[in-house]
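To: structure subgroup
Subject: Chain for Friday's discussion

All,

I'm putting the inputs and outputs inline so they're searchable in the archive.
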Amino acid sequence: MGEERWNQSGGFWLLPGFRYERSLRGASFFCHAATHKLHTDGVLMYQQVPLVQIDGLNLVQTKAILNYIAEKYSLYGKDLKERVMIEMYSEGLADCMEMIMMLPFKKPQEKEAHLNTIQGKATSRYFPVYEKALSGSQYLVGDKLSRADVHLMEATLMLEELFPTILSTFPNLKAFQERMRGLPTISKFLQPGSQRKPQPDDIYVKTVFEVLKIQIP
């Protein structure tokens, strides 16, 4: 299996589920920072990242990339009805994770209020949906792993890093996370030194502003 190359603004946020989808198949990938050469070569369709180079294609736009990976590795359901459920669950998780994505860009005096918003919405709006879906089922959709499960795993881990006890009142989500941790490729991916990225810090924020040529406030 050939190595895949993907490009974003130096970090982990634009394609949070991509690394997990690839790790499920034990595949390797190469990540590099956005460069001027990509712009001049005309590789970036809309002159912006993320970019994934796979199967001779230059894929852009996060949703298109994730859908391609999910289809390629059979993480996209068996029919149209399953696919639309996978999309709905995945889009909800994207909305939830977007709140986390914005945290490092908040001013210091705004961060506590934003953390409260994240925790409140996660536990009242999003987690109850997935807790119910996992009642009596190992997976969110159908009888096999899908892209939605991959995103749910990542979301629960990210939220636990911010709020260590957040799953304490969601037993189905906790059990789901433990099952996912038990998958050999996911277990390996979660080990120190893997290709999983830590949550962004001030250096990451500075890099994003530099890549996107935005003046730091």
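Points worth raising on Friday:
Residues 108-133 form the longest helix (26 residues).
Confidence is low (pLDDT under 50) at residues 9-16, 27-33.

D.
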